UniProtKB/TrEMBL annotation:
Described purpose of this protein according to its UniProt entry: Catalyzes the NADPH-dependent reduction of 7-cyano-7-deazaguanine (preQ0) to 7-aminomethyl-7-deazaguanine (preQ1).
Name listed for the protein in its UniProt record: NADPH-dependent 7-cyano-7-deazaguanine reductase
NCBIfam families for the chain: QueF-II
UniProt similarity note: Belongs to the GTP cyclohydrolase I family. QueF type 1 subfamily.
Keyword match Lyase: no
Matching InterPro entries: GTP-CH-I_C/QueF, NADPH_dep_7-cyano-7-deazaG_red, QueF, QueF_type1
One GO MF term attached to the UniProt entry: preQ1 synthase activity
GO cellular component, one term: cytoplasm
Pathway the protein takes part in: tRNA modification; tRNA-queuosine biosynthesis
GO-annotated biological processes: tRNA queuosine(34) biosynthetic process
UniProt organism field: Neobacillus citreus
Catalytic residues (positions): 57, 64
Residues binding substrate: 79-81, 98-99
Length: 166
């Protein structure tokens, strides 16, 4: 079998292929795992669409549901997708505001990956007649990605959605 080798990060993974994986019901950033980016000489986006994100309102305990969109340009590391799935699942009983959830996710991925660029967008389903869609981003300081982050922040939502397309 050809492809990625143990020396390129496979030996460090504990979740992928593990049939005994436990789902954590409390916020668990330690479950995130990364492997080497085998293409650090090239810019490319990695995009995750996670339509089953849930968390809890910190005051009422009511559930909040969202699709979480995570896009990043890796540098030396990429996130392993099963660990990301388990990490996002760990928000299930975590009480925080929508804005906090997207920023926590972004901060944890920055800590894990040190990406060139990252953005996280939570599209939460309406509760009480209003939906909240927080978006945050980050570009590595002192690089063109910092400028890219500023540009995308200023232009990320020029075309607001219609109520009938949610």
């Amino acid at each position: 079998m050809s492809g990625r080798t143990d020396e390129q990060g496979l030996k460090d993974l504990t979740l992928l292929g593990n049939q005994g994986t436990k789902y954590l019901f409390e916020y668990a950033p330690e479950v995130l795992e990364a492997v080497d980016n085998l293409h650090p000489n090239r810019d490319f986006f990695v995009k995750f669409n996670c339509p089953e994100f849930t968390s809890l309102c910190p005051l009422t305990g009511q559930p909040d549901f969202a699709t979480m969109y995570i896009s990043y340009i890796p540098d030396q590391k990429i996130v392993e997708s099963k660990s990301l799935k388990l990490y996002l699942f760990s928000f299930r009983n975590h009480g925080d505001f929508h804005e906090d959830c997207v920023n926590i996710i972004m901060n944890d991925l920055i800590k894990l990956l040190d990406p060139r660029y990252i953005e996280v967008w939570g599209k939460f389903t309406p509760r009480g007649g209003i939906s909240i869609d927080p978006w945050c981003n980050y570009g590595k300081p002192g690089t063109k990605y910092e400028e890219m982050a500023q540009f995308r922040l200023m232009n990320h939502d020029l075309y607001p959605e219609k109520v009938d397309n949610r």
